C-alpha cells in the first residue's frame, strides 16, 4: 500500500471512528475539549506509525487504546501535581468526582451508543448558543472540518472556528455533566439535537466538499442517532418526522451515483435502485409522525415532500403541484431563502420554468445566499429550460466556482458546456418555450 493509499485509509477510519472515540473519551474525562485533543493525538500517532507498520486489524480499537493511554498519562501527571496524594486517593476511593484508576475499562465500546447520545446532548446544552451547538456537534459527531461546517452555515471559516473553541471552553467552565438529561429537561434540548442530526445527514447526502458526491457513513450515523432518539422520545412527532425524512432520502443514495462515480440527479435516477425497505420504513415513520401531531412540524413536512417522490413510480408521475403546496406550508413554518429556492424548483416543475425563475430572481439579493452555489445552479437550470443559454452558462459557471465538491463542480461545468460556447447567444429556443434538459434541477433533491 502506497503512502497516499494509507493516508486515504486513515482519513476513512477517522471519519468512521472519531465520534465513537471522542464520545468514549468524554465519558472518561468529563471534558469535551480534552477528549477531542486526545483523539487528535491518536490520529497523529496513526499518521506517524501506520505508513511504516501497516494499518492494524482493528483500527478503531487501536485509536481508542492510544488515546486512552495518553489520557491516563495526563491524569497521572495531574495526580502527581496534587498537593496531597493521600487525600486524592481517598477522593478516588469514595468516587468524589475524580477518575478512578479502572475507569479506562469503560472505554472499550461496551456503551458506545449511549456515549454518543450523551455527547450529543452535551454538545446541545442550553448553556451554548444555537449556532455553537450545531457547529460543535458537527465537529465532534459528524467529523466535519471547520471549512465544511462553514460552508453548511454559509459563514466564514474563522467564525466557525471561534464558535467551536468558545463552545468547548463554555462547557468546561459550566461543568456540564456528561449525561443524558432527565425527561423533564430533555424537551428543551431536543429541537437542537434534531437540527444537528439533520445537518449531519445532509452533509452525508450531499457533501459540501471533497471528491465524493455523497458520504453514506454520515447518513448512517445520523440515522442511528435518530433511531436512538426515538427510543428516548417515542411520543415526539418531529423525531419520527426526521427519521421518516432521512429514511426516504437515504433510500436514494445508491441511485445518486453512476457506476463511474458521477452524480445522478433526481429526475435521471433509476428508481429500481431505490431501497424499498428504507422507503417502507420511512413511510411508516411518516404515518407515526402524522398520527402523533397535527398540523405537521417542519421535519414531518419535509418527509411528506420526500414521500411524494418515493410514491411516484416514474419521475413523470411526481405530484409537483402537491410538492409546491407543501413547500408553501414549510415556508410559513420555517421562513428561509433556502426553502424558497426549493419552492422555486417545485413551482417550475408544476407550472413551468418562468414561474420558478420569477421566484428565484427575488432571492438574488439575499445575503444568506451570497456564497450559496445552488442559487446560480437553479437559476442556470431554469434559464436553460427557457432557452436563454448564454445566461444559463454564466450561472452554471458561477455555481461551479462556488461549490467545494469536486463531483458537483464537474457536473456544473458540464451543464455550462451544454449551453454552448461563451457568447454563442440564444440558440434553437422557441420564444417562451420550455427546453427540457437531461438533468434534474440542481438542488438538494428533496425538492
Outline of the structure:
The protein has 19 helices and two strands. By secondary structure, it is mainly alpha-helical.
Regions with little confidence, pLDDT below 50 for 5+ residues: 91-110, 427-444
> What's the mean pLDDT score?
83
CATH level-4 homologous superfamily of one domain: Tetratricopeptide repeat domain
Major beta sheet summary: 2 strands, parallel
Q: What would the principal axes of the Cα set say about the shape?
A: globular
- Beta fraction: under 5%
Q: Count of DSSP E strands?
A: 2
CATH-defined topology of one domain:
Serine Threonine Protein Phosphatase 5, Tetratricopeptide repeat
Structural class: mainly alpha
Do you know the CATH architecture of one domain? Answer: Alpha Horseshoe
State the helicity in percent bands: 55-70%
What string, H for helix and E for strand, traces the elements in order?
HHHHHHHHHEHHHHHHHHHEH
Strands of the largest sheet, in order across it? 1-2
Tell me about this structure.
InterPro entries: DUF6596 (IPR046531), RNA_pol_sigma-70_dom (IPR014284), RNA_pol_sigma70_r2 (IPR007627), RNA_pol_sigma70_r4_t2 (IPR013249), RNA_pol_sigma_r2 (IPR013325), RNA_pol_sigma_r3/r4-like (IPR013324), WH-like_DNA-bd_sf (IPR036388). GO terms for molecular function: DNA binding; sigma factor activity. It comes from Actinoalloteichus fjordicus. Belongs to the sigma-70 factor family. ECF subfamily. The chain has 447 residues and is mainly alpha-helical. Among the domains are: 82 residues; 100 residues, Alpha Horseshoe (Serine Threonine Protein Phosphatase 5, Tetratricopeptide repeat), CATH 1.25.40.10. Helices cover 65% and strands 1% of the residues. The chain contains 19 helices and 2 strands. Strands 1-2 form a two-stranded parallel sheet. The longest helix is centred in the N-terminal third of the chain and has 27 residues. About 9% of the residues have low confidence.
Amino acid at each position: 500500500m502506497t503512502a497516499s493509499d494509507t493516508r486515504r485509509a486513515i482519513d476513512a477510519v477517522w471519519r468512521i471512528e472519531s465520534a465513537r472515540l471522542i464520545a468514549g473519551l468524554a465519558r472518561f474525562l468529563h471534558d469535551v475539549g480534552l477528549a477531542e485533543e486526545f483523539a487528535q493525538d491518536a490520529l497523529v500517532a496513526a499518521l506517524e506509525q501506520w505508513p511504516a507498520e501497516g494499518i492494524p486489524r482493528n483500527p478503531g480499537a487501536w485509536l481508542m487504546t492510544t488515546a486512552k493511554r495518553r489520557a491516563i498519562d495526563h491524569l497521572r501527571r495531574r495526580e502527581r501535581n496534587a498537593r496531597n496524594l493521600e487525600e486524592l486517593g481517598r477522593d478516588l476511593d469514595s468516587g468524589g468526582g475524580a477518575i478512578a484508576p479502572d475507569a479506562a475499562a469503560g472505554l472499550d465500546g461496551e456503551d458506545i451508543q449511549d456515549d454518543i447520545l450523551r455527547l450529543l446532548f452535551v454538545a446541545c446544552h442550553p448553556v451554548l448558543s444555537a449556532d455553537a451547538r450545531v457547529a460543535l456537534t458537527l465537529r465532534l459527531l459528524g467529523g466535519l472540518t471547520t471549512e465544511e461546517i462553514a460552508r453548511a452555515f454559509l459563514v466564514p471559516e474563522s467564525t466557525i472556528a471561534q464558535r467551536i473553541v468558545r463552545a468547548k471552553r463554555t462547557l468546561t467552565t459550566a461543568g456540564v455533566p456528561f449525561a443524558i438529561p432527565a425527561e423533564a429537561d430533555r424537551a428543551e434540548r431536543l429541537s437542537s439535537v434534531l437540527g444537528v442530526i439533520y445537518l449531519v445527514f445532509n452533509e452525508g447526502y450531499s457533501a459540501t466538499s471533497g471528491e465524493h458526491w455523497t458520504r453514506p457513513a454520515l447518513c448512517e450515523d445520523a440515522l442511528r442517532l435518530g433511531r436512538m432518539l426515538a427510543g428516548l422520545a417515542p411520543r415526539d412527532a418531529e423525531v419520527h418526522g426526521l427519521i421518516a425524512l432521512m429514511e426516504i432520502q437515504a433510500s436514494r443514495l445508491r441511485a445518486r451515483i453512476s457506476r463511474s462515480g458521477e452524480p445522478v440527479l433526481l429526475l435521471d435516477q433509476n428508481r429500481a435502485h431505490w431501497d424499498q425497505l428504507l422507503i417502507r420504513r420511512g413511510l411508516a415513520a411518516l404515518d407515526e409522525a402524522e398520527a402523533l401531531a397535527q398540523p405537521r412540524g417542519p421535519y414531518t413536512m419535509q418527509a411528506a415532500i420526500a414521500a411524494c417522490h418515493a410514491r411516484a413510480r416514474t419521475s413523470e408521475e411526481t405530484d409537483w403541484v402537491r410538492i409546491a403546496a407543501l413547500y408553501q406550508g414549510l415556508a410559513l413554518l420555517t421562513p428561509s431563502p433556502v426553502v424558497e429556492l426549493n419552492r422555486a424548483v417545485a413551482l417550475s416543475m408544476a407550472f413551468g420554468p418562468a414561474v420558478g425563475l420569477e421566484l428565484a430572481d427575488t432571492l438574488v439579493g439575499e445575503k444568506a445566499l451570497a456564497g450559496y452555489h445552488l442559487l446560480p445552479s437553479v437559476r442556470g437550470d431554469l434559464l436553460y429550460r427557457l432557452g436563454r443559454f448564454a445566461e444559463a452558462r454564466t450561472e452554471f459557471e458561477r455555481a461551479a466556482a462556488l461549490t467545494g465538491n469536486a463531483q458537483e463542480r464537474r457536473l456544473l461545468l458540464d451543464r455550462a458546456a451544454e449551453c454552448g460556447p461563451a457568447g454563442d447567444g440564444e440558440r434553437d429556443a422557441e420564444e417562451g418555450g420550455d427546453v427540457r434538459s437531461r438533468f434534474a434541477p440542481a438542488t438538494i433533491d428533496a425538492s
